[in-house]
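Task: complex structure prediction.
Instruction: return structure tokens for all chains below.
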Amino acid sequence: MAEVEFEPRIIAFLCNWCTYTGADLAGTSRIQYPPNIRIIRLMCSGGLDPVYVAKALLEGADGVLIGGCHPADCHYQNGNYKARRRVAILQGILEQVGFDPDRVWLRWISASEGQYFADTVTEMVAAIKEKGPNPLKGVGAI
Amino acid sequence: MIDALVDVQESTLQTIQGLLRTLMEKGVVDALLVPLRLPAGNVAPALVTDPAVLATGGGADPLAPMMPINAARAASNLTMTGHQEKLGLVLRACEIRALVELVKFQQVSLDNVFIIGVDCLGTYQATDYQSISDKSQLVDELLAGAVTGELEPHEGIEFRDACQMCEQPLPEGDHVALTIGLVGVEAGKVYLKASEDWAEALELTAGDTPPGRASAVEKLIAARTQARDAAFAEFRGRVNSMDGLLQQFSTCIRCHNCMINCPICYCRECIFRTPTFEHESQLYYQWAARKGAVRMLPDTLLFHLTRLNHMVTSCVGCGMCTEACPVDIPVGTVFRTVGQKVQAIFDYHPGRSLEEAAPVQEFREDELTALGKRHHA
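Output:
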């Protein structure tokens, strides 16, 4: 039987005002990008508790993309700066406990950057393919 | 601040009891939160409003080398909803650090509150402490070692893990009204560092820091730092892959004791105790079907990873989590090791100063600028 190519599953937490709208623009502009991404819309990247990122990773997601407004462009003034600190803390922790922190990506993508959104997903899928599956994938009894 | 050396009357403990009593009798404080010897022989923090209690029975015993809870938690109960009394908190260094963090998170109010810090000579696990019948011998040994800064545990037992690697055993900071110093102080003396009004109330004669203190403190901190780095290296060698992490927490029974006993985990309603993690029965079967099996209770590792995310930046290293763990997971060592790296991102030292905001409380626009940008455009 032929080896099936590894298709990463990426969970994306996107802010309503910028990155989610950017993803929408990618769609309405018919820009192609890999279908490996499952999007969860948030009102703000600053509202993302790391518990949900950790949950996704422990459940076997191969990557997590967090998308927010560019610095100084947050719809709620500063939510993206808070998200940035949380991601820095999360990545620091993951690195210390032996989990590849580069499976978690933070990207500032505005509502007008449909092409950049598609490029980011393409890039991330390629990068995660190179890394291979999340070592926790299929490990049920953790 | 006034430095003074006072002569020991009877014993070091009785001298300290006398000082605390003077503070209460002169009305410098109306109440004290202080470790008190209980009838069963052990010691626990207690709120004392009658100065006579300080020297009755076992009386107050801030020297007892055991720490049942981080008393900063009790300070929250005693200060958050208003109090008339001038309250003195007799605390160890790690309790003061936890207190400072709780002030930042608005869980302790320092209005009408004074911190009395005591040099910590190390503490034993509660069960070890209970097993030694001669409690005063335990203290005498430590006091003898404190003179030179060479603190060795009682024969046959060890200091708590957190104490073995504690490189900040002395009260520090401007928020401390009175320091009761023991490390590097010649036998028969107690070193006091007090604010001017307190020095006057205690009738202290201004003097110098004891000559041996600096070198004894340096020696103690060097030994502890070495032990700490060895513990960090051991942890990093063991937990360097997902397998290592799974190993580390595999025996967890998800009792939440570490969270309940953590002074920093102050949330009234922890997310792990909300309906977020209560699921329809059918969901468990779906998850099991997808993965082959699902551990019950689920989300054990998620609990620890999340707790790390929520509070490791403010972890003061008191090790109460390790003490509370019924299956002997070195939770405190995990938090200290991970905390060292994560706190360094923000150059943050939990409990050091009331002026610095905790990393999870603030942000700067000009920091971490590489995060969020494309690596190679």
